[in-house]
Amino acid sequence: MSPTITTSSEANGNVSAATARAAARAAGATAQNTAKTGPQSITLAKALNTALADAMHADESVLVFGEDVGMLGGVFRITDGLTRTFGTTRCFDTPLAESGIVGMAVGMAMNGMRPVIEMQFDAFAYPAFEQIVSHVAKMHNRTKGTVKLPIVIRVPYAGDIGGVEHHCDSSEAYYAHTAGLKVFTPATVADGYRMLREAIDSDDPVMFMEPKKLYWSKDQVDLDALRAEHAANTENGTSSEGRAAVARPGTDATLIAYGPSVPTALAAAAAAAEEGRSLEVIDVRSIVPFDDETVCASVRKTGRAVVIAEAHGFASVASEIVARVQERCFHHLAAPIRRVTGFDVPYPAPKLEHYYLPGVDRILDAVDDLQWED
Amino acid sequence: MTISADHTAQQPATVEAPRIPAEDTPPAENAAGEAVRKFGITVEDYMLPARHPIQIVGPDGALNAHTEQGAQPGHEYSLPGDAELMAAYEQLVVGRRVNDQNSALVRQGRMAVYPSSHGQEACQVAAALCLSDGDWMFPTYRDSVAVMARGVDPVQTMTLFRGDWHGGYDPAKHKVGIQCTPLTTQLLHAVGVAHAAKLRGEDTVVLAMCGDGATSEGDFHEALNFAAVFHLPVVFFVQNNQYAISVPLAHKAVGYGMAGERVDGNDIVALLAVLGRAVKLAREGSGPLLVEAHTYRMQAHTNADDATRYRQDSEVAEWVAKDPLTRMNTYLTDRGLLDDDGAARIAEKAETVATQLREGLGEEVPVDPQELFQYVFATPTPQLKEQSALLADELARDTASATTSEEASR
User: Fold this and answer.
1) Quick one: average pLDDT of A174-179?
2) Which residues of A are less than 8 Å from B28 in CB distance?
3) Secondary structure in 3-state letters for chain A
């Protein structure tokens, strides 16, 4: 990426010259730090952090704020270094009040900014529910498109980290059920970068659900290649927004998963391969909009499907996926679609969570149940 | 950058010296410290409202003696100019006519609902007139008259209540937020608009409106806290119309480190003076302020409410005597500013707006069912495109079958 400041956004307004100078200097510093090119082993946390920094370099109207996101860098360090690089006007701490954070972001977006805000944990976002549902989701519709709210609400979500109560909820269904919100959830390091840039670029509000158990997962990623891809997509109007991905090709059955469940599905597919069964894994990536095309193409090919999600199964995103696939692929199905989800219980205490979480064995049991004998 | 957004975090070396020194001292103390120097009073006297609500013209329309206006040292107010008062009176008369016209339109079934601000018109008008063009207003559902006084087309303003869409005007164009139904949520939007403006070094002031009931909601407190912490140019304007609580609200401001003032909400002269000063102070960098206006909702909450179940006629009668219009009419007439010709001209203006509303709201506005899908997202989802096609197909078949049965009956 060429670390120069552009003022392309019409929402940009005239961010003060001092801020611009600070950012320009910081951009130069970052360019030196990240001079190394080619694939590197980096974490999802680093990919997200890099996406934030790059987006802030590219557009001065991008602001980052939330609880402890300033000098601390956020409890998961996703905003690490941003205050140092961009100053306290562009990355700053707020009072501990989630409704206040989201409500203030609404006003800032109405007045030309692109706020990227952090809800410290999934369940901590509930006090902001009214602002999210009644305003973030509805403002564009209510004003017939005259007010756009390009807000990204980052939510570290889901469990499997030994967290205490209120720190491990899978809250995606609440947002997916709300008309007017886009809901993204990356499962790979590269998608962390790619999808966060796309979320920030989006003129629609995006609930950006980050699987917190994957923050420290590493992958070989070429950040410069991702930057080039983003630049090319911006120029050509192409992007991966709203598209699912085939995470592992296969022929016998399809595992449909998203966010924290994707690695579990991949592990299940690897285990099944040893037993001679070829499972295709679809990474949903974007819950809203949902990519019916990619998901259904896979199920039509394999004729069998299992949907995997950490959230409770009742009235869930997994239920919605089953219904959609069943409606579209009925004549291709050799067996009813199965769900492997969390139980319909409050998220368990750390010593019990492994009973709750969809694991490889439970997934393989569901696969075994797909009427192979017929 | 003119003022530091976050006083505790490190300042980048390139940032110019903030106008308000903010490295170690909380901004509220700075603001108060500045006020102490500016007005020569104690911090407490600056932060706390004057002992009595500010009232410049009494219910009988007579100018109060200066010593009886409620002002104290540091809380002094000057009388607005004659032209400003005449403009305000005209808006008062228009506002009253709009309130009563709309209530009639609801009774005739031409509007779904209308939360009237009958009796509160002085607050409505002053809220609009105290702002400059670049300023923003964040109104509630009861603040239609304020929205109109800010220059929004009357029929567009009433779209929400007519029922063909949830909003009828462009908030960005008019710098007026949507009329907010969920209580107090709009105060945080006001804080955000002010924050964005401040980061860009603009001198925008934002007026954030709510009622007394809303001050119990969590978002009220979060908005005051955020505005104080980030030292933002927001004037919180609470119309205490008596129907939710009765404790003095303006005193709550001091808890957030902001100055508060109480004002007679039926005295437009005092309202213009108090809100005008608050806006000026906010623009000069005082941080947020809170103004509480004592007024009265003369009519029921909406047409769906029955106020006789919870209040006595005698109480309403008391407030009739304090009516903001009659008071101002008397005052301006006695001053020789308003004569029969002037009054007739203003009445005619009000009637023109009422006619505009009758005609605009009486018109059968065709609704477009495809608009259901058009504005949910800036970039529509494939699912909404499918649903839009489904509805279009349903409607096409309805039309076709209507045509067929018409032909058959011929």
Assistant:
1) 98
2) none
3) CCCCCECCCHHHCCCCHHHHHHHHHHHHHHHHHCCCCCCEEEEHHHHHHHHHHHHHHHECCEEEEECCCCCCCCCCCCCCCHHHHHCCCCEEECCCCHHHHHHHHHHHHHCCCEEEEECCCHHHHHHHHHHHHHHHCCHHHHCCCCCCCCCEEEEEECCCCCCCCCCCCCCHHHHHCCCCCEEECCCCHHHHHHHHHHHHHCCCCEEEEEEHHHCCCEEEECHHHHHHHHHHHHHHCCCCCCCCEEEECCCCEEEEECCCHHHHHHHHHHHHHHCCCCEEEEECCEEECCCHHHHHHHHHHHCCEEEEEEEECCCCHHHHHHHHHHHHHHHHCCCCCEEEEECCCCCCCHHHHHHHCCCHHHHHHHHHCCCCCC
Which of B12, B170, B378 has the CB atom closest to A22's CB atom? B12
Catalytic residues of A: 167
Minimal Cα–Cα distance from B161 to chain A, Å? 13
Of A70, A127, A143, the CB nearest to B167: A143
How far is residue B139's CA from residue B137's CA, in Å, rounded to a whole number? 6
- State chain A's maximal CA–CA distance in angstroms: 71
Per-residue pLDDT tens over the stretch B189-236:
999 999 999 999 999 999 999 998 888 899 999 999 999 999 999 999
CB contact under 8 A, A70 and B6: yes
Token look-up 């929004």 returns B152
Residues facing A42 on adjacent strands: A219
Mark yes or no for CB contact A134/B171 under 8 Å: no
Contact A94 B226 (CB under 8 A): yes
pTM: 0.89
Q: What is the pLDDT of residue B12?
A: 37
Residue B36, classed as helix, strand or coil, is: helix
CB-based contact (8 Å) between A323 and chain B?
no
Q: With beta carbons less than 8 A apart as the criterion, state whether A321 and A284 touch.
A: yes
Nearest to B14 among A25, A180, A289 (CB): A25
Kindly state the DSSP code that residue B173 receives in the 8-state scheme: H
Number of C-alpha atoms within 13 angstroms, CB side, residue A153? 33
CA distance B128 to B146: 6
Burial of A4 (0-12, 13-18, 19+ CB in 10 A): exposed
State how far the alpha carbon of A162 is from the alpha carbons of A78, A293, A351, A352, B228, in Å. Answer: 20, 36, 8, 9, 38
Residue A36, pLDDT above cutoff 90: no
Q: How far apart are CA A334 and CA B294, in angstroms?
A: 71
Contact of B6 with chain A, judged by CB distance below 8 Å, is answered with yes
CA–CA distance, A7 with A60 (Å, rounded to integer) = 7
| Residue pair B192/A110 in contact by the 8 Å Cβ criterion | yes
Q: B8 pLDDT band (50/70/90 cuts)?
A: very low
Mutate to test the interface with A, among B232, B375, B386 (most CBs of A within 10 A): B375
B192: helix, coil or strand?
helix
The token duo for B161 is 């209540």
Positive or negative, the Cα torsion across A17, A102, A82, B19?
A: positive
In B, which residues are within 8 Å of A95 by CB distance? 222, 225-226, 229
Question: Whole-angstrom Cα distance, residue A50 to residue A31?
Answer: 11
Shortest CA distance to A136 belongs to which of A155, A123, A120, A158? A155
B19 has a chain A CB within 8 A of its CB: no
Q: How far is CA A184 from the centre of its chain?
A: 4
Q: Do A144 and B375 touch (CB under 8 A)?
A: yes
Check whether the bond before A289 is cis (ω within 30° of 0). yes
Q: How far apart are CA A237 and CA B19, in angstroms?
A: 43
Complex prediction ipTM? 0.88
Identify any residues that bridge with A169 across adjacent strands, giving them in sequence order: none
- Amino acid identity of residue A278, one-letter, is S
